[in-house]
Design the sequence.
């Protein structure tokens, strides 16, 4: 199974581990990720200005590259997934935006939203299945109590993201279970971490994050996993001794038995 | 050549505001065959109608055109006026220059041109009109009420009192509907059962009422005055004639843990059960899905203990076919599913809907009227009511409309709690408090001022079940601040929607339904209890959210309309039906296949074709069954079929006139 892959800027800088562990894990699972050539920043925030098309072009270019190869486009960062899925939806369902963007790009073939955009976890769910994933696990995380932190960007708006039920999501829990750990369901797993407010009002973010972490601990979580570099950053703003915050690819790699010596120098010790 | 009169209506400024009436009049004068043209501000008024009648007599008109509103609005009015003269009423045509012209256009010149074109078309059509004479059809003096809630029961009682036979079809094992589940009713706080059950008993013993519970509509044929309807009486597994209602069967039934529908799943019922003590009929039903006898073949305890030997495991569904003159849809409402409302944590046992709360405060309910948290059976110290759960919201999971009854029943619930347990803290989250109605706002004010219920303007964003208590995250819009608070019990004022089965029922009766599955009225103001399909009437909340007084008042209005129909011995039928030219018909059967009313059959008939006699197989139209839909006309490959009043010649003449 070959997919076009869009890592995004954060995965090349702050969240290198998310990227590298994902590539290595994917290899083990038989998923081939082909990085899109000359990709640009997705913008990190979905442009809400309906008449603004320039900010959508980077996403459209990536989508179009994938369309040319006829491959689904795989993302990892929650913000990239959010922006690219929403721009793709615009190109598919908003005739006005589609017309303007295609006119601006002046390329031979128009892009009409043909590419399927998937987060890596959706790829695992759809193309491998969590039951099958169990068979790949060499090092089951038995006894570990892991809570999923979804955040907002993968879930909402649910009609466009089509990721999971925005109020009671379960996909990460199924993933955690497949890796042999005990998923901890806690009500605040889909509450906002504060997002970009951390640039301006750090105290507010700390307050929001504290509620989430307390709730996770109250329900028995010993580790939280997330797909979002910004969520991870915010969640780490307050220290909490018995609650580690990691990327979902870290537990995946751990369960698959990927070690330090794999070909791309996997620095597995990150954040432990 | 016809002598045609044209009458142009201003409809106040409705038409004259956008259409230049003088120009339409002037243009009409030059149309072929037009002998007389007049205009008047309100042609439908008494003066306007007299003007039309006078002109017909004075100018010896053979056909007239009324350029005014939609034929749905006033065609009948003007046909009646024509009938008062020597003119055949079907020599009249309406040109709709209001709904299809002045109301939808802004530009006066364009609207005037269109009004002229439409008038021209109607004039061209009248040239080909021929006098038509309505037939008659019989009226079966019997009504069918679908739904045995308060709407259906009170409508049936009113019709039965007028001397007509009424059958009630109810899908559940007992009549009573949602009202039977309620505890108290607003704004008087009288006990729901005390006012409903006597009416149910009246219906049960009324000589003109037959009740079919645990039954559904199987099929519908026919039309106004002459419906043939088949009812499926589902197998009750209990012989209704033998059962005495003693209750020995359900006392002995070993399957005791089925969540009871009547108690909204809060209480348990047995596999053989009556939904509630005052059920009518007081005859149990075996729930075959859960019954051991049906599942494993073993048990049969109920059969053993039944003294009158009424249990019948072999019983099968029974089909009853009956003729009716009128049908009343009174299928009512149900709370929406909360599956998509994860933020309210409805999966928690201590988050309940308002209907569940009704059962809980009801002395005959699962907790015997005691207010407790389901999780730990403790009395709550604080209760929070959340209004507009799924109402007034454009999101896909929600309803855009106001469910109308929730503000009042929430005030009622809050007051009942405070009255019984003054120490419990009661909070209500609301968007707006809507209390129009007799003594309604006073009732709500009492909850706030006398009972100290704390109303907070704002929506709840998240509910978290933390085991021993529930956490609420909300916003107080008046104080402009976030609220994080704890409460012990949450009651959700869930939006209401029509029951799912109504789509199927409406489909069988060809009655129209809106995007929310509420039944559509024939006219929202002037025909509020009739469906657009003749002979099909509406009652209760299947039309839209209604409280009990409104439902009963509406059901009375429905009954009056039904009685008006059933009191007639014959109905005048529409003469605009299919008409066959036997010389062209080759008996190909194409029309028979498309006729939705089964009005076409074939007969060998002797045809005298220019002196040449021959026996041919040709179509025969049943004039009582034909509804004039025109499907056969467009299907007929040889052009033998035509529609009286809308003949091919008439339509072609109209199109030609418009294109001229």
Sequence:
């Amino acid at each position: 199974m070959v997919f076009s892959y869009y890592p995004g800027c954060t995965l090349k800088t702050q969240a290198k581990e998310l990227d590298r562990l994902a590539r290595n894990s994917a290899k083990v699972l038989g998923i081939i990720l082909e990085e899109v050539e000359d990709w640009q920043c997705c913008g990190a925030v979905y442009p809400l200005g309906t008449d603004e098309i320039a900010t959508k072009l980077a996403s459209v270019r990536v989508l179009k590259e994938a369309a040319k190869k006829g491959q689904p486009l795989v993302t990892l960062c929650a913000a990239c997934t959010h922006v690219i899925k929403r721009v793709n939806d615009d190109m598919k369902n908003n005739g006005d935006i589609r017309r303007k963007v295609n006119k601006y790009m002046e390329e031979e073939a128009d892009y009409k939203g043909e590419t399927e955009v998937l987060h890596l976890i959706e790829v695992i769910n759809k193309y491998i299945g969590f039951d099958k994933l169990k068979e790949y696990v060499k090092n089951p995380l038995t006894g570990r109590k892991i809570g999923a932190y979804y955040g907002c960007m993968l879930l909402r708006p649910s009609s466009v993201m089509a990721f999971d039920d925005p109020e009671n999501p379960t996909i990460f829990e199924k993933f955690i279970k497949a890796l042999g750990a005990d998923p901890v369901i806690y009500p605040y797993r889909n509450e906002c971490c504060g997002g970009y407010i951390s640039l301006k009002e750090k105290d507010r973010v700390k307050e929001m994050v504290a509620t989430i972490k307390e709730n996770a601990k109250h329900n028995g979580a010993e580790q939280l996993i997330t797909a979002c570099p910004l969520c991870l950053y915010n969640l780490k703003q307050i220290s909490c001794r018995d609650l580690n915050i990691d990327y979902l690819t870290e537990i995946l790699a751990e369960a698959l038995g990927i070690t330090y010596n794999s070909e791309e120098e996997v620095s597995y010790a990150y954040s432990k | 050549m016809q002598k045609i009169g044209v009458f142009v209506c201003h409809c106040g400024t409705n038409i004259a505001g956008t259409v230049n009436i003088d120009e339409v009049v002037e243009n009409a004068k030059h149309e072929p065959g037009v002998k007389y043209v007049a205009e008047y501000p309100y042609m439908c008024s008494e003066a306007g109608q007299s003007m039309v009648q006078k002109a017909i007599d004075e100018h010896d008109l053979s056909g007239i055109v009324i350029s005014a509103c939609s034929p749905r609005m006033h065609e009948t009015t003007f046909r009646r006026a024509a009938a008062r003269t020597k003119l055949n009423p079907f020599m009249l045509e309406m040109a709709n220059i209001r709904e299809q012209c002045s109301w939808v256009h802004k530009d006066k010149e364009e609207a005037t041109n269109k009004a002229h074109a439409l008038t021209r078309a109607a004039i061209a059509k009248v040239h080909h009109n021929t006098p038509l004479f309505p037939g008659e059809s019989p009226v079966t003096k019997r009504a069918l009420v679908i739904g045995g809630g308060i709407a259906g029961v009170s409508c049936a009682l009113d019709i039965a009192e007028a001397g007509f036979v009424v059958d009630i079809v109810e899908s559940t094992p007992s009549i009573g509907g949602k009202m039977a589940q309620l505890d108290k009713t607003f704004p008087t706080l009288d006990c729901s059962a005390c006012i409903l059950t006597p009416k149910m008993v009246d219906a049960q013993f009324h000589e003109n009422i037959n009740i079919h519970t645990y039954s559904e509509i199987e099929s519908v044929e026919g039309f106004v005055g002459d419906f043939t309807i088949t009812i499926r009486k589902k197998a009750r597994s209990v012989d209704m004639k033998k059962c005495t209602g003693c209750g020995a069967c359900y006392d002995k039934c070993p399957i005791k843990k089925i969540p009871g529908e009547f108690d909204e799943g809060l209480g348990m019922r047995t596999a053989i059960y009556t939904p509630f003590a005052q059920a009518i009929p007081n005859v149990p039903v075996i729930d075959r899905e859960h019954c051991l006898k049906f599942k494993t073949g073993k048990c049969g305890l109920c059969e053993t203990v039944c003294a009158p030997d009424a249990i019948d495991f072999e019983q099968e569904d029974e089909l009853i076919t009956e003729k009716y003159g009128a049908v009343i849809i009174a299928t009512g409402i149900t709370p929406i599913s909360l599956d998509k409302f994860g933020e309210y944590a409805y999966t928690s046992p201590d988050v309940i809907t308002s209907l569940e709360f009704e059962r809980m405060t009801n002395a005959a309910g699962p907790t015997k009227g005691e207010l407790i948290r389901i999780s730990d059976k403790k009395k709550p110290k604080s209760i929070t009511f959340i209004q507009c759960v799924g109402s007034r919201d454009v999101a896909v999971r929600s309803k855009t409309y106001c469910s109308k009854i929730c503000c009042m029943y929430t005030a009622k619930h809050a007051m009942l709690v405070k009255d019984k347990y003054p120490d419990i803290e009661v909070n209500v989250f609301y968007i707006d408090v809507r209390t129009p109605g007799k003594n309604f706002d006073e009732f709500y004010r009492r909850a706030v001022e006398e009972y100290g219920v704390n109303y907070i303007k704002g929506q709840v964003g998240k509910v978290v079940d933390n085991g021993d208590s529930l956490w609420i995250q909300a916003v107080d819009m008046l104080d402009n601040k976030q609220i994080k608070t704890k409460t012990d019990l949450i009651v959700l004022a869930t939006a209401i929607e029509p029951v799912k089965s109504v789509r199927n029922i409406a489909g069988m009766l060809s009655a129209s339904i809106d995007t929310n599955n509420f039944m559509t009225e024939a006219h929202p103001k002037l025909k509020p209890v009739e469906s657009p399909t003749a002979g099909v009437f509406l009652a209760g909340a299947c039309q839209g959210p209604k409280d009990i007084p409104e439902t009963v008042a509406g059901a009375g209005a429905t009954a009056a309309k039904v009685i008006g129909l059933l009191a007639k011995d014959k109905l005048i039928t529409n003469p605009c039906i299919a008409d066959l030219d036997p010389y062209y018909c080759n008996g190909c059967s194409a029309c028979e296949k498309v006729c939705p009313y089964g009005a076409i059959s074939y007969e060998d008939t002797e045809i005298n074709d220019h002196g040449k006699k021959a026996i041919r197989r040709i179509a025969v139209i049943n004039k009582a069954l034909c509804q004039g839909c025109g499907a056969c006309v467009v299907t007929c490959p040889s052009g033998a079929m035509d529609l009286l009043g809308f003949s091919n010649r008439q339509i072609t003449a109209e199109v030609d006139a418009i294109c001229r």
